[in-house]
Fold:
Amino acid sequence: MFHLKLDERAVLQITGEQAASFLQGLITNDINKIIASNPHKGLYALFLTPQGKIISDAFLIFKTENTFWLDVPKTQIENLVKILNLYKLRQKVTIRDISTESSVIVASQKISSEYFADPRSTELGWRAISSNSIDVQGTAEEYHRMRIELRIPDFSMDLEENKFYPAELGMNDINAIDYAKGCYIGQEVTARTNYRGTVRKALYKISFQKETYLNYGEDVIKDDKILGKMLGKVGNNGLSLLRIELAEQYLQDGHVLIYS
Structure:
């Protein structure tokens, strides 16, 4: 059981007459899925560079006719505000950091109507953006252990800006991309990679057998072969981005690399 605030996440408010069309031209998912949603739903999406690499992830909720709230990595919020203002041009949109007023909350059960099912996996429970105080249960470590077990990356812990393509992180499998929607920044590269099936790297769980663990960005090596790079970890388990052709011979249960 868990019910806690994620201190590594922050909240942006996008409001204005053109807020929906503004976001639709930037994110990898279709904003209309939450505008028309009933009951309350959340949307998981990515912001990309023109070259198709990930700037940040975001959970979006529809608040009112002209207002959206975005749950984003705290480390990226200043950069995101700059990027959003750059693309805003003359559109009637206001962008505000409201992190001092609202927090990102995760829970294993639905607490109230403001909570929405995690769009990435039902096993990750429920999320909310709320100004309300909560009765904390469990720890962030417990939550992230479960996320790693599901091989779901978290931008705050596992990723860096402008280094990764969505396909190699399995973003297709966690509902981050809609290939049927219209154009957005980075769409051409993302679509081409998907349709050509040219992905050479993939995300794997890595389980350590020793107390000497790899740190973020270090090489994952087996039999003197560099398989790829270490990402984030919690305890003895973490995520790694590995070359598929090299990693496959060392895997257990299809997606776990035992590192000793």
In short: The radius of gyration is 19 Å.
